[in-house]
Write a structure and sequence with these properties.
Blueprint lengths: L1 H41 L12 H12 L11 E10 L6 E9 L7 E8 L4 E9 L9 E5 L8 E7 L5 E7 L11 E8 L2 E5 L5 H4 L9 E7 L9 E9 L4 E10 L6 H7 L6 H6 L1 E6 L5 E10 L4 E6 L2 E12 L3 E8 L5 E11 L2 E10 L11 E5 L18 E5 L2 E5 L4 E5 L4 E11 L2 E8 L8 E8 L2 E10 L2 E4 L5 E5 L3
Antiparallel strand pairs: 1-2, 2-3, 3-4, 5-6, 6-7, 7-8, 9-10, 10-11, 11-12, 13-14, 13-20, 14-15, 15-16, 16-17, 17-18, 18-19, 19-20, 21-22, 21-29, 22-23, 23-24, 24-25, 25-26, 26-27, 27-28, 27-29
Length: 491
């Protein structure tokens, strides 16, 4: 009897172990299958057409897509172009606005709202709407309180197939549920430029006490009644609260510079590389008083696919990704070489043969804002006769020096060449000033922008002495390397 009890106990224990193993295997299988399903569910299929892009442009597209993380997957034939996140007004979940397009090249781009459905306990599309832009590489998506009631509008800018600038604006009706469809309150398309003219708003608005004044929108297009290609028509649009639309309120003519029309047609022909070559080089900022500010400048290097912004004693280097001709100039998309999520759109308009006007939009993934720091007119370096003062630094020189590196040639074009018995090295350079320190930056040819070298320069007994430094948020840091002495060579 005792043996039978022991035998039955062993059988029961064995069956229990097998049952536990079976249940554990099934649970593991279900968990694995669930994880696999979840991975498939959240996978974003974003087909790309990058065969016509250069390697640097393809890199830019890949970096952009890595940062376009969605709350839910779109259809297999839909490509994500831009994403804007925001906190929900009715719960703690984050929501997204997404600009996408289908594989149909002729179709416009669309905006969709991905909201959290508390009943379904998941994200779903709340609404879709078309926007006027069609050129993928020019799309920008951001939000702003245009009306002054703290109800942020969703704004999509970009260019269409005709190389026209477009702006599409959506606004939520505060009386409707938070996930209700946004209404289109403006859509502009023009062979010129479109800007939001921000109105001054009181401290009471900033503190949430009162409403603010509505912003207006201005568009600038060619004056078809004029023979001068630079004469423009300015059209102002204001928000009409009765019909909840932006309406035209004023039209005025703006005379442009008188430029020889044949040369003007060449620059604005839209031919590949023509306007890029025109803007190549150094440009100084022109103040509202009409004077040149040598402490704020831009350096365009289309050959090296690089744009340098210098202002507020700080230098920013951007990789030139793509450019598209416009009616009055060029539209450029660029990417910061240090912060891959920082994209910058630059709309350049021709003012004269030695001046241009810029409108710059910052595009930071996950939080997109408009930045007007660089907006305004710029004049080509060398177009004005600067007085020689101690406080001014010429970005380029024409000189030859001997040094321990070899003989170095500085050209006014911003290029340098170092020759020695071993080899010849080339690159680009620029002189500038930070905190009253004269600096020289060398960017060797064929190396990445991250390998550029900065030197503090001092003049003593007719010699130029270079000390290697690092320029950062904490100012100028001496790297304690042996200094290099440049001895002028008399031609």
């Amino acid at each position: 009897m005792k043996k039978a009890f022991i035998k039955s106990s062993i059988i029961i224990a064995s069956l229990s172990v097998l049952l536990i193993i079976f249940l554990a295997s099934g649970l593991y299988s279900r968990l694995t299958h669930k994880e696999s399903d979840e991975e498939t569910k959240t996978k974003i299929v974003t087909p790309r057409e990058t065969t016509s892009l250069s390697s640097s442009e393809q890199t830019g597209w890949l970096i952009r897509e890595e940062n376009l993380s969605l709350k839910m997957s779109l259809e297999d034939n839909e490509t994500v172009l831009a994403v804007l996140n925001r906190q929900s007004e009715i719960h703690q979940m984050e929501e997204q606005f997404v600009v996408y397009r289908t594989n149909n090249a002729a179709s416009p781009v669309f905006v969709t709202f991905l909201g959290y459905d508390q009943v379904q306990r998941g994200y779903r599309r709340m609404w879709n709407a078309p926007a006027a832009a069609t050129r993928n590489e020019t799309i920008s998506l951001f939000s702003q309180d245009l009306i002054g009631d703290r109800n942020n509008c969703i704004i999509v800018t970009g260019m269409n197939a005709k190389n026209e600038h477009t702006m599409t604006i959506f606004r939520h009706n505060p009386e409707q549920p938070a996930d209700a469809e946004y209404k289109k309150i403006a859509e502009l398309q023009i062979a010129g430029s479109i800007i939001i003219q921000e109105a001054g708003r009181s401290l009471a608005y900033q503190q949430g006490i009162t409403r603010g004044q509505s912003h207006t929108i201005a568009s600038y297009g060619h004056d078809s009644a004029s023979l001068n290609m630079l004469d423009q028509i300015e059209t102002i649009y204001a928000y009409n609260a009765l019909n909840e639309q932006y309406e035209q309120i004023n039209v005025s003519r703006i005379p442009g510079s008188q430029i020889e029309q044949r040369r003007l047609r060449e620059l604005l022909s839209g031919a590949q590389g023509v306007f890029e070559n025109f803007v190549s080089g150094l440009w100084y900022y022109v103040t509202p008083q009409g004077t040149i500010d040598t402490m704020q400048y831009l350096y365009f290097n289309p050959a090296g696919k690089e744009i340098i912004f210098y202002g507020d004693e700080a230098q920013q280097v951007f990789r030139w990704q793509t450019s598209n001709p416009t009616r009055f100039g060029l539209f450029i998309r660029s990417q910061n070489i240090s912060i891959s999520t920082l994209l910058r759109s630059i709309d350049i308009e021709l003012e004269s043969l030695d001046s241009i006007k810029l409108r710059v939009i910052e595009d930071v993934r996950l939080r997109i804002t408009a930045n007007t720091t660089w907006d305004g007119s710029y004049r080509r370096a060398g177009a004005a006769n600067f007085k020689e003062t101690v406080s001014q630094v010429h970005p380029t020189i024409d000189a030859i020096f001997d040094s321990s590196w070899g003989r170095i040639y500085f050209n006014n074009s911003g290029e340098y060449t170092i020759t020695s018995s071993v080899n010849t090295r080339k690159g680009r350079y620029v002189f500038y000033k930070v905190d009253n320190n004269d600096l020289l930056e060398l960017r060797p040819e064929g190396e990445s922008n991250e390998n550029r070298m900065v030197y503090k320069t001092e003049i003593a007994a007719g010699l130029m002495i270079l000390s290697r430094v690092r320029v950062g948020t904490n100012g100028i840091q001496d790297l304690l390397e042996p200094p290099v002495t440049f001895t002028p060579v008399n031609n």
